[in-house]
Amino acid sequence: MELRTTPYRDEYRRQCIDLMSDTWNHNALFPGLTRENLVNELFFHEATVGANYSRIVLDENDRVAGYLFGILKRDSRGRLIRGLRTLGVIVRMLFHFLAGHLGPRRRGWKTAAGLLAMMSALESHRRDSDAFVSLFFVASSLRGRGWGKRLMEDFQRHCEAQGYQRIYLWTDKGCNYLFYDRQGFRRTIEVSSPLLAGYGDEPNGFAYVKPLTTESAAESGVG
Ligand SMILES: CC(C)(COP(=O)(O)OP(=O)(O)OC[C@H]1O[C@@H](n2cnc3c(N)ncnc32)[C@H](O)[C@@H]1OP(=O)(O)O)[C@@H](O)C(=O)NCCC(=O)NCCS
Fold this sequence. Notes:
Elements: E1 3-6, H1 13-23, H2 38-48, E2 53-59, E3 64-72, H3 79-98, H4 105-122, E4 131-138, H5 147-161, E5 166-172, H6 178-182, E6 186-191, E7 205-211
Parallel strand pairs: 4-5
Antiparallel strand pairs: 1-2, 2-3, 3-4, 5-7, 6-7
The protein binds coenzyme A.
Coenzyme A binds at residues 23, 136-138, 143-149, 171, 175-176, 178-179, 182.
């Protein structure tokens, strides 16, 4: 199979969401959803709206087989447009919430507040100067063949060329988080949340940092 990478374009959006939905099902967070894939759609928009780095893996039929989205905050290009698009996503979420598309509003509000608190805990070690991985995915049929590593290494090279010193991301037990341990990331935060996959006695949400060549591990605040 011939595969290639390309920056994201809107025409790939539906395929990107479908690919994600094959592995992740966030519907259980909002019982009473009026549309099956709505939470994954909102999740995709939220994760990609501020992204100014993207690589999509495409097969020979232009089918999406993987992707990595990143946010480089220091890049001022298009800051206004990104701000407006973020506002658009917030308005869209509010609309669905108020229209009752996310199920009973009281419960939906509690869940949304819990999600925001959990995300804020996982991002508490994130610096403005960090490069951030906002969404990273390889099709299940392609996993274990080096494409995840290639996407991450391309991102790392891009960040290093731009002078970034660390890559930051957060993940949970529903993801293949051991990939990050293997790729030289260090776990910097652990949380326990019923809103994340694999909730139990052990922590199920993790933040990871990877120091880049411009900064030594000792200086990175990892640990
Ligand atoms: C995470 C993900 C993108 C990795 O992509 P992938 O193509 O399967 O990974 P690769 O084949 O490139 O693996 C790269 C290396 O990591 C190792 N690795 C991958 N998963 C691993 C695991 N669970 N445990 C230990 N090592 C692992 C591989 O053995 C390989 O090792 P190498 O450097 O010695 O060659 C992919 O598994 C995925 O999409 N998972 C579901 C979604 C997800 O978890 N996304 C991340 C959300 S934060």
